[in-house]
């Protein structure tokens, strides 16, 4: 049965960027930063493409909320193989409730079977949007989706989806990363899944994919046009560097290390 | 009045998960600043026994919500039960420890309460309800942000390494209640593949020995030293991605956050995503054959060398010193 899946492409600083707080303590230094799709969202796009391939076709709708810059991340997802892109045009602070509210309205319009989000954005590391969305839609939630096979396994090499959808799409079975091990949950559909690192290894976009993505239309909305309150309920009042650790020393050998640990650190 | 409600987490065997005690301290700090009462809620098939344990830890009231639908700590069952209770007791703050279960359920509770949430809070600042703010890490801890949440109810998850465990202090009241079961369960746990280990839990251990890609998958020297020290074993993402060690052992921004007395990192380069999970450790030792590896910037004691030589030597020295 063809399936329709909604995924996201949040724009975040590349994980290798050096993040510095500005002199006023109001934000970060923008110069020299590179931007990418949130790594967890990229895993979500990959999983959606694999599910669609396995279930005989369907649609993958990708959404990003932000300024026009997010077109870059939408086109990245299109180049990977997503079929439709939606941009929610918004400038300025944006809290989890606004993001989840916009996604909720878009899901009510698009009516996908499933939504796959990232477990967290690697910029502000909140880990919230998927759960808010599931509650507001009244859907089941399967956070921290992973799989038992490693990223070096045969299942991964053959690009099998890790999420297991029932043939009639009534349930989805998800392996989750929980404290102490891996938990398998069976959720009723529709469901919001959030991805963890080991769900899959995202593909590289092909050159024809990249070319095709350039000319695909991008549907535009705003929080207001979706009927969502864009006012932020969270104010960041200050940003600062974490306390620095005091500089350490190099020891020449194991004997010196043991001595320091015993006499100085009293850690042994 | 700004009452505070902390959601209690149980271990698989039904006993108290220690992380809850750290969250209770965060809750007590908020209550002290806002003049509210500290409440806790236990949800289980039979919540009574655990509620009787929790009431000892400086809590005014422990709400014991029992029901067959609460046998599993699933977000769709927990969220309505906590949200209804929070409204009934006029809670202004609802919090949990930032464990995997806490991270899973709390945003769903917040959504039900139309409340904003701050994740992984590190401290509570301000002196009253009017100016209460939280600090929390962003960008893998490269930035500490102070945030003010302006919804009538505010939710949070507390980073366990930043709040000490609550101590026993008098005996609170236990109040039983019966949360309504949802019309239909949306999710059920069908199996749990536990990472069995005789070693202490990673997040509770006094000493952690972690290995990275430099081990090339051979964790024997790591495990040998860990066992000599009574330590937990940790790993970098590279190790877990390769399937060399269970995912549950990943330390970092997107894994476990630990702050033991002693953290030994061997064959780990020290990417910011890894450091985010261990830089709160009291003493950090790095063993790496590359003297320029960034891990040395956070290490108190750095040893440039081959881990396959250094770790067995260290193990022997620890043994000899016993
Ligand atoms: C410098 C800076 C300043 C900020 N200042 C403020 C502020 O003043 N007020 C404020 O309210 N917020 C502020 N934020 C946070 C805000 O921009 C967050 O992006 C927003 O709160 C969403 O939460 P999150 O990304 O942490 O969600 P998480 O819950 O960590 O994200 C999980 C998933 O949600 C989805 N998602 C999240 N955001 C988007 C998006 N934009 N488009 C598509 N999918 C998305 C993705 O699937 C993502 O993987 C600031 C952030 C930064 C980096
Ligand atoms: C979204 C995202 C989230 C992430 N989250 C995490 C996280 O939570 N935790 C985490 O750890 N990483 C995380 N990472 C990955 C992180 O960026 C690094 O890639 C990872 O930490 C590297 O692991 P490593 O240090 O083991 O490997 P490498 O960086 O390859 O380092 C191996 C080190 O071993 C040394 N070495 C080699 N042989 C020996 C020897 N015989 N003796 C001594 N030393 C030796 C080398 O000199 C090198 O420094 C994340 C990345 C992303 C994009």
Q: Which helices and strands appear, and what pairs or packs with what?
A:
The complex is a heterodimer of chains A (268) and B (322).
Chain A: E1 3-8, E2 11-13, E3 35-37, H1 39-54, E4 58-66, H2 71-80, E5 84-89, H3 96-110, E6 114-118, H4 129-137, E7 140-146, H5 154-157, E8 164-165, E9 171-178, E10 181-188, E11 191-195, H6 207-215, E12 218-221, E13 234-240, E14 249-250, H7 254-263
Parallel strand pairs in A: 1-4, 1-6, 4-5, 5-12, 6-11, 7-11
Antiparallel strand pairs in A: 2-3, 7-9, 8-9, 9-10
Chain B: E1 3-7, H1 19-34, E2 38-44, H2 48-54, E3 61-66, H3 75-88, E4 91-97, H4 100-112, E5 116-121, E6 123-125, E7 133-138, E8 143-149, E9 154-158, E10 173-177, E11 187-194, E12 207-211, H5 220-229, E13 232-235, H6 237-241, E14 262-266, H7 272-275, E15 283-288, E16 301-304, H8 307-321
The complex binds flavin-adenine dinucleotide (FAD) (2 copies).
One flavin-adenine dinucleotide (FAD) sits between chains B (212-214, 236-239, 250-255, 267-269, 271, 273-274, 277, 287-290, 293, 306-308) and A (15, 39, 122).
What report would you give on this structure?
The complex is a heterodimer of chains A (268) and B (322). Chain A is built from seven helices and 14 strands. Chain A is of the alpha/beta class. Chain A has one domain (3-263): HUPs (Rossmann fold, 3-Layer(aba) Sandwich). The longest helix of chain A is centred in the N-terminal third of the chain and has 16 residues, at 39-54. The model of chain A has no long low-confidence stretch (mean pLDDT 96). Chain B is α/β, with parallel strands linked by helices. Chain B folds into two domains: 3-177, HUPs (Rossmann fold, 3-Layer(aba) Sandwich); 202-321, 3-Layer(aba) Sandwich (Rossmann fold), CATH 3.40.50. In chain B, helix 5 (220-229) links the parallel strand 12 and strand 13. In chain B, helix 3 packs across helix 4 (100-112) and helix 5 runs parallel beside helix 8. The complex binds flavin-adenine dinucleotide (FAD) (2 copies). The site of one flavin-adenine dinucleotide (FAD) has 31 residues of chain A, from helix 1, strand 4, helix 3, strand 6 and helix 4.
